[in-house]
Amino acid sequence: MDFGFTAEDEAFRAEVRAWFSEHREGAQDRRAWERTLGKAGWIGLGWSEGGYGNRVATLTQQVVWAEEYARSGAPARSGHIGEKLLAPTLLAHGSQGQKARFLPAIAVGEELWCQGYSEPGAGSDLAGVRTKAERASDGTYRITGQKIWTSLAHEADWCFVLARTEPESRRHHGLSFLLVPMDQPGRIEVRPIRQMTGTSDFNEVFFDGAHAHAEHLVGDEGAGWKVAMSLLGFERGVSTLAQQVGFAQELGSVVRAAVRSGAVADPVVRERLVRQWAELRVMRWNALRTLGSSGDPGAPSAAKLLWGGWHQRLGELAMQVRGAEASVGPREWAPSSPYELDAAQQLFLFSRADTIYGGSDQVQRTIIAERVLGLPREPKGVV
Predict the structure, then answer these.
(1) Which tens digit of pLDDT belongs to each residue from 56-111?
(2) Active-site annotation holder among 134, 166, 204, 235
(3) Beta-bridge mates of residue 223
(4) Domains of the chain, first to last
(5) Full-prediction pTM beyond 0.70?
(6) Is residue 235 flagged as an active site residue?
């Protein structure tokens, strides 16, 4: 398949590579790095409406940027939740006041966001949200409840929260989408969750009467499910192609490890390596085929099923080619510090969650069964 990068796209690619070559060495502090990206105009590519973004960019140029970012070795973004999830949601559903207030701050890297969706009893089953938001006499909302697996909540300035504003409502009815400032001592508490890798990028977030202004309700009250589902549709797209660049780099590392250890002499290992390579190519063609398309409810679910399982199998293969030494951890580590894991161990442990976060495999299969194949709906319990 020829995706059709033009001469202008390749000139844009050269510009991007030159910029990274000059600036990535100073990308240590992640918040400062967001400001550097914003100052150079790299946040908000393709936000054509209202001039809120920094640059006008075609879809293919957005692909170029995402791929070159992944290749550059620059740090993981701390502003991607605001840029890639909230911003397109506000462009689609937000008021003019909300766009004017929040989009420019995201575009210059000044305000970071986290996502308040999952809860202890409503992870993949998002319609089971129990967090409440009650309208006070002054018009503000008072939010009470708990969110979990909240990425980067410890760094975020704001959180978009899905909460129940109609007390007797059930399932996806009566939910609202609220923009909540995180700087509310005594009303919001963030507790890091230690992962198998020893890091703590995820958090529990507790809301105890946290305030949200009425003008920060996105869409209509009680219609938050529509907004929330729209946001999840933005979660996969151009960023998927950048993710695949990272996957290709990881696969290359596993291949080199197999050569060094001699595991490549095993025909079973060779077959698994070739299969991983071929499946990654299929994922790329599928991502390019569906890029920019809308109205296909099964496409995001199919993509998630593909890459989640693929990455998990790559982690297992990384351990296999390393042999016995892969099971040996650091001799000493402090309980309060990240473990000293090598790249293969890190890949294996982190990828165990790939088939759960972002919508578990079971949920993705249910979506495909019900919305694409038209099979009978899965029975739902009473919440």
Answers:
(1) 888 888 888 888 888 888 888 889 899 988 998 998 899 999 999 999 999 999 99
(2) 235
(3) 175
(4) 7-107 (1.10.540.10), 113-224 (2.40.110.10), 236-372 (1.20.140.10)
(5) yes
(6) yes
